[in-house]
Each structure stands twice: as structure tokens, then as C-alpha cells.
Amino acid sequence: MTAHPGFDARRLDFLTAAVERDIAANLYFGGIISVKRGGHTAYHKVFGHSSESKERAVADNSVFSLFSVTKAFTNILVFQAIERGLMTLTTPLAKIIPEFSGGLRERITIFHLLTHSTGLPSMFEARPGMYIDVLADTIAAIVEVALPIEAAGQSVGYAPLFNHALLGEAVRRVDPKKRSYKEILHQDLFDAMGMKDTAMGVRRDLKARHLVPEFRNNYPIKHLGHSNLGPNGAFEEENVEMPWVGGVSTAHDMMRFAEMLRQGGTIDGQSIVSRAMVDQARTIWTGDKPNEFYASGIRAAGGIAPPANLGLGFSIRGPQMGTSMFGTLGSPGTYGAHGAGTTIFWVDPERDISFVGLMTGLMKTIDNLWRWQKLSDILLSAAL
Which pLDDT belongs to residue 292? Predict the structure, then answer.
């Protein structure tokens, strides 16, 4: 592999060596890291295996479960709906989903959902032991149990489930064509972007390449699907609608997505979302408020917890020193998203860098934070 002139090739070797050390130490099993600068491939490396047994090597076209990186796709659908006049950032959610109304719920807007400042509790599941692959069932459960513990806008707490399930449902309800969430996602994003190996659920033609995620007892709940494929079987189902965790993709497709954002919402000359919306999405809207979901864990592990630094659905590096998956060397405007213990992408608009990391073997939250911070900093130190 020849390094792009924008990087020091020797320092890029440090990135390869660090990942190989981690895998040898059984911190995770393998994966793919891909980097572009100014649209040119600077680094693309396939590592290791899909599981601890080492029976199956990761391939360049392997399909990964994205977990919460899926939320980034749902963000784009929300932005498109706003640009088409179907909702606004300040629209109360109860106006779109009337059964989600009453009390403090009335004050929750699309903006609050995107910035994780709804006042709802941060919960991984709506009802313990329920199937999560049918969106209508998930929404019904959320309507029943998701009660605010404070007024919207008071604090920030990452919502693993509630916010993006509700946003996905809101997109569905305002769609003039009355399509399902999954149809909107595939037609208006994946098809429009040429992301041929990306899907909601494990599409039949992707199944042979899909690396079934191993949770390694590092996640607090089960993820049940109606085919009863195991405690985390929802991530092997084809017919799912999980706007918060259900996406699958390849490193190449995820790089297309990151590059679309880096170019202000455009890919191959086609506008997917407006530059104005991307600019708002990568603006910090949460001030100095901490992200209560992560801050206590970071401090308990001896790290520095920066403010939440949330934009519209995306996390942002911010100007502060602190534990960050986007590295401590990144420009303050670096933004992106990550998924439970395995997946990440970020864009550094100042340095014109797009970074994608898809790994196998789910890590604990704080270990995953430090892993990506370390690897991101190695990559950023190699930038000339």
C-alpha cells in the first residue's frame, strides 16, 4: 500500500502495529480501518478474524453490524424531511406522534431528540425481554414507558434507544408516500448514495459476508428477534426496522457516507442533504453540559470527561482536552458517530480527513473509548 502524500508512511505503520498488538492481546479480534484525505485513499487495512476462534478471516468486503452508527443514517432522513418541509427542528414530537403526548412530553421537539436533551431516561430497552425487530412494537412500548424525568433541554444524556426509534417513526409518519422507515432509508439514502452493500437488517444477499457480532458479555441486555436466533439474534435478522441499531455495512460503503458529509452533503455530484443542514449538524448545541451517560464512567476510569459536545445527532470533538474517540489531536470541529464497542466514523473538516473503523469483538465502553482515541491520535499524528 502506498501512502497518500498527505501522510507520513512510517507513522501510518505505527497504526498498523498498534492494531496488531491489540489483536494479539485479545482486546478484539480484527476489522478494517480506512482513511481518506481530500478524497484520496491514504490508508486501508484489513485485520484479523471475525471471532476468537479465528475460523473466519475478516475480508475487504465483510459486512459488519453497525450498532448505533445506524443513528447517523436516521439523522440524515430527519434532515431530508426538514428540507422537504415535512417537519422542523422545533416541531414538538407530539404533533407527529400524538400518542406520545401529555405532561413534559409536550415540550420535547425534534431538536431535543437529536441533541439527546429530551429529559427522558437513558434506557437500553423499553421492556425487558421484548423483541426489538418490529418498529411498531418498539414505538408502542416506548409510548407506554418513556416518561420524562425532567423538562427537555435541562441536561444531556445519551439515549441508546428512545430518541432515534422515535425519530425513525416520525420520519415514517410525515412521509407523503406512506412508505415504511426501511423503504425510506433504502430509497432516499442507500440507493441515492450507491451504498449497495448497506442495509437495514441483514439483507439476504449480504448474509454470507455478514460477520455475526460477538458481544463477549460486554453489553447489558439481550437483543431478541422474532426468528429466535439467540440472545442477540436481532442482529442476524433480515426483516428488521431498528432506526437506532439495525444497520449493516462495509468499510467501503461507510467511507462513502463519511465522504458525503466531508463534502457538505454531496457525493458524486449528487446532493443527499444540504450544506446548510450539515453545517448545523456539526455545530455544538449542548454548551458546557456533560453527557451524563458517559461522564461518570470516564471519571471512574481515571479519564477526563469533556462536555457532551453534541450537534444534531452527531458527536463533535470540541475544543476541550478530554477522553474522545476522535482523538486528542483532532481539530475541534471533528465530528462523527460510533456504535457499541466496535464501530466508528469521523470527519475532520479542517484537515480534510475521513476515518472509518469497523471491528469485531465488542469491547467495554471505556475500553472502546480509549481504543479509538489511541488509534485516532496515531492516525492524526501521521498527517502532514
Answer: 85
Looking at residue 204, what DSSP letter applies?
A: G
Q: Quick one: pLDDT at residue 296?
A: 87
Out of 3.40.605.10, 3.40.50.300, 3.40.50.720, 3.40.710.10, select the CATH number for domain 9-66+198-381. Answer: 3.40.710.10
Query: Over 128-143, what HEC string results?
Result: CCCECCCHHHHHHHHH
Average pLDDT over residues 113-138: 96
- From first CA to last CA, the distance across the chain in angstroms is 18
Whether the per-residue pLDDT at 197 is higher than 50: the answer is yes
Interatomic CA distance for residues 357 and 7, integer angstroms:
18
What digits encode the pLDDT tens for the residues 278-297?
999 999 999 999 998 898 88
Beta carbons of 303 and 323 less than 8 angstroms apart: yes
Chain region(s) in the chain for CATH 3.40.710.10: 9-66+198-381, 75-187
Alpha carbon distance 299, 223 (integer Å): 29
**How many other β-carbons are positioned within 10 Å of the β-carbon of residue 293?**
16
